[in-house]
Design goal:
homodimer; alpha+beta; about 260 residues; PSTPO5379-like; PSTPO5379-like fold; 2 domains; 4-stranded antiparallel β-sheet
């Protein structure tokens, strides 16, 4: 994975000018990256309420003013219409286009939501010496829908999606305390151990991502996943919605440590 | 202070039936009490966004569905129209009435917000052995408007209000770590030491509450205060708003420990 340690603003400028269009893993290490969801104002109240009621899968780090593409709290001067490498456009809940710039799609009634992501969380685990099997094995993290329901809000309802990481048994307590310090990056695990207890029937077959190989003594540990709000929003078939393309995140000016509560 | 250790539901039932009408300090110790703000749907989006942007003064623990007085997340079956001992009714930002039951004022377009309160926070400090001077001295906590601005959201803007507690110098780090674990009850202090640095000119004259007496070696420690959202909401002169009367809080079914992130 190539590492680009320039400040976030310089990297965003390259993305804005079309000089970079790939996934953002490895860019501006140490800074918070975020998931993007853009919805019309008409849907924004329900989505904001859904995030308030489901903070583990939906850690909101920024909500723009109606019509404004500037995330002034986490990256003043940035433009969410141009500063992500790739976007997905959805109409009536169906993928309609994938683009590198959403200026032509922007409207005065749109609200952009930025949600904390697992990069912050995995950085904290690695920094604490907890191994990440999927990274060692060069795979995507494994994800499943669970039998745990989110608390509904208005038109939004659906199951919680989790990501799973095999953790050496002796490091499970450390994995819990380290991630608990970051409620804005999904926080502590939702579940440790038996996958069936949360409705996962086959740990070898994820619904998204790749199956990770367990090493002897590894225990499956499950965290709430940022795929949840996007899946829930699309399931309600909003007439219009924009998200980042998978892996093509927004890079904020916040150091990862800024999201730690203790 | 009289202590009533019955479960929250029994105490709420007494309040609902008019058998109890006083302040809620000392009731259901160990359970989270909450500030109430009720606004029309038309103002609810801005208020929800204001809370998202200012989590330290505005820790949202519950938002009801539009028109519903049931806080189903924190006290299923409770009724926010009858289960607080006393309410204040505001019209155009002015106090219009103080009542013990808001059934006659309830409307289908109202949304109720419950915000975490300093009781949880002071319980955590006392439990960790940090003395609370204002409690020892039988006074209310001292509060001030500061020169720190909240992040505006729609029609809501204004200064941060803080509460101040004198803390023995040797216990300041403990006071920080203990409260940091409770972001849903205002979290870690905003400021430690020099009051002038946050625009407080006279530490002996609070704007609300009583001045606490400092013991030798005590340091002033400032936390974001739940008066902030109410002051900010009223300053925008909403046509209609309801709040709890000071000290007459809503008692939830959540144990204080449920708000701890670690």
């Amino acid at each position: 994975m190539p590492i680009d340690s320039r400040p976030p603003k310089e990297i965003r400028d390259d993305i804005r000018r079309g000089k970079f269009g790939g996934v953002t893993a490895g860019l501006a290490p140490g800074f918070v990256q975020a998931n993007l969801a853009v919805l019309p104002k008409d849907h924004a109240y329900d989505f904001l309420l859904f995030c308030q009621r489901n903070p583990r899968p939906c850690p909101l780090i920024e909500v723009t003013d109606v019509g404004s593409p500037e995330p002034s709290g986490v990256a003043p001067g940035a433009d969410l219409r141009t500063d992500l490498p790739k976007y997905r456009i959805y109409e009536d809940g169906q993928l309609a286009d994938e683009v590198t710039d959403i200026v032509p799609y922007w409207r005065e009634d749109l609200v952009a939501f930025l949600l904390g992501c697992s990069f912050t969380f995995e950085w904290a685990l690695l920094d604490a010496g907890v191994p990440m099997r999927h990274i060692e094995q060069g795979r995507n993290v494994a994800m499943w829908r669970t039998s745990l329901a989110c608390r509904p809000a208005g038109r939004f309802r659906g199951p919680m999606v989790v990501s799973m990481r095999p953790i050496p048994a002796a490091m499970v307590p450390k994995a819990v305390t380290v991630t608990a310090r970051f409620p804005m990056a999904h926080g502590a695990p939702l579940h440790i151990g038996d996958p069936a207890a949360i409705g996962i029937t086959d740990i070898a077959r994820p619904e998204w991502g790749d199956a990770a190989q367990f090493l002897p003594g590894d225990v499956p540990v499950f965290w709430a996943c940022g795929v949840t709000p996007q899946a829930v929003a699309l399931a309600s078939r909003p007439p219009f919605m924009i998200s980042h393309s998978p892996g093509h995140m927004f890079i904020t000016d916040l150091p990862n440590h800024a999201l730690s509560v203790i």
